[in-house]
């Protein structure tokens, strides 16, 4: 249970909280990309020119009108974190960005416990996301969790033209022999602009974060579509083993049910520059604070 709380700091903070802020990027950025995104809700989709005279052009889907994201980390990035409670290091995690030759981009997160914890409660979790450069819209979101005797694999495929996200979730008794304990398939109705939690996280890293602002966003996770919000607090200087960083402090908040269960408030500190690197994540609980601290950038 302790490790699951630690992991929730990383996954919740690095993905969910950020996804809430994506709405602000589409509405208020002063860049040319953000100006295009800001018109999504108020204008009709643009129309492609027809290559054949007399043939009606097919309207573009909403997501196809989004600007392409060209942030510095889109060319490739690897962030490493240490998960801790007080002075105790309980686990580690990585976040990677991998551009593909076909123009799409892969986001991959891996989390594990330390050697001592893994001996009696092995943890190996992977979250994979495939996105388009346009608005970082997700094609596929895949999650593989191995935590003690719990083994789960889930998959979400986004069909934006049909306005639905198709979900598959399986819990295994034995992941090696593929003995299934339970399995469920379902679909969620979407309007076409929803994110997975990972794609939303990376999109927010491209945005200006205004102090005192609260923004909302929609994402699909598990078997539901969620309304999320993020509060941008203030700018602070954070000291780590990597040095001092000028940061922006934000707080993720869920309206209604939660994608991840957390026993306290969560805060994230992003570098106050174009990279928006998450330097520190912290969950406040009754027994103190659980942190995810950046240890390496590649």
Architecture overview:
The relative contact order is 0.20. Strands 8-7-6-5-4-3-2-1-14-13-12-11-10-9 form a 14-stranded antiparallel beta sheet. Helix 2 packs across helix 3 (32-38). The protein is α+β, with helices and mostly antiparallel strands. It starts with a helix and ends with a strand. It is globular. The protein has one domain. Strand 6 and strand 7 (164-174) form a beta hairpin. The longest helix is centred in the first third of the chain and has 19 residues, at 2-20. It is 16% helix and 48% strand.
Uncertain segments of ≥5 residues (pLDDT<50)? 7-52, 257-262
Distance between the termini: 31 Å
Describe the largest sheet.
14 strands, antiparallel
Strand proportion? over 45%
Number of domains: 1
The average pLDDT value, as a whole number, equals 78
Short overview:
By secondary structure, the protein is an alpha+beta fold. It has five helices and 14 strands.
Features:
298 residues; alpha+beta; 14-stranded antiparallel β-sheet; 14 strands; 48% strand
Topology:
Elements: H1 2-20, H2 22-28, H3 32-38, E1 77-85, E2 88-99, E3 105-113, H4 115-120, E4 123-131, E5 138-147, E6 150-159, E7 164-174, E8 179-189, H5 197-204, E9 214-221, E10 224-240, E11 243-254, E12 266-271, E13 278-285, E14 288-297
Antiparallel strand pairs: 1-2, 1-14, 2-3, 3-4, 4-5, 5-6, 6-7, 7-8, 9-10, 10-11, 11-12, 12-13, 13-14
Helix pairs in contact: 1-5, 2-3
């Amino acid at each position: 249970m302790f490790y699951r709380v630690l992991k929730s700091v990383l996954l919740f903070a690095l993905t969910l909280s950020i996804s809430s802020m994506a709405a602000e990027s589409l509405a208020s950025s002063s860049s040319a990309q953000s100006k295009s995104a800001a018109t999504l809700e108020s204008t009709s989709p643009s129309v492609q020119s027809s290559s054949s005279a007399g043939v009606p052009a097919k309207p573009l889907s909403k997501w196809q009108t989004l600007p392409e994201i060209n942030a510095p980390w889109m060319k490739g990035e690897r962030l490493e974190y240490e998960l801790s409670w007080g002075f105790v290091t309980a686990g580690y995690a990585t976040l990677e960005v991998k551009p593909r030759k076909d123009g799409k981009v892969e986001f991959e997160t891996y989390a594990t416990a330390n050697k001592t914890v893994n001996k009696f409660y092995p943890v190996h979790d992977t979250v994979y996301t495939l996105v388009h450069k346009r608005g970082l819209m997700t094609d596929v979101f895949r999650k593989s969790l191995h935590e003690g005797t719990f083994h789960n694999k889930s998959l979400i495929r986004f069909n934006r033209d049909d306005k639905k996200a198709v979900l598959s979730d399986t819990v295994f008794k034995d992941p090696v022999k593929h003995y299934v304990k339970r399995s469920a398939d379902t679909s969620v109705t979407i309007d076409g602009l929803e994110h997975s939690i990972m794609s939303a996280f990376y999109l927010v890293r491209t945005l200006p974060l205004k102090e005192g602002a609260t923004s909302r966003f929609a994402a699909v996770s598990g078997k539901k579509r969620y309304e999320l919000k993020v509060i941008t607090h203030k700018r602070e200087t954070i000291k780590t083993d990597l040095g001092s960083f000028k940061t922006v402090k934000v707080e993720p908040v869920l309206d209604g049910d939660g994608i991840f269960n957390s026993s306290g408030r969560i805060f994230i500190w992003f570098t106050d520059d174009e990279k928006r690197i998450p330097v520190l994540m912290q969950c406040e609980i009754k027994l103190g604070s659980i942190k995810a601290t950046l240890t390496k950038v590649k």
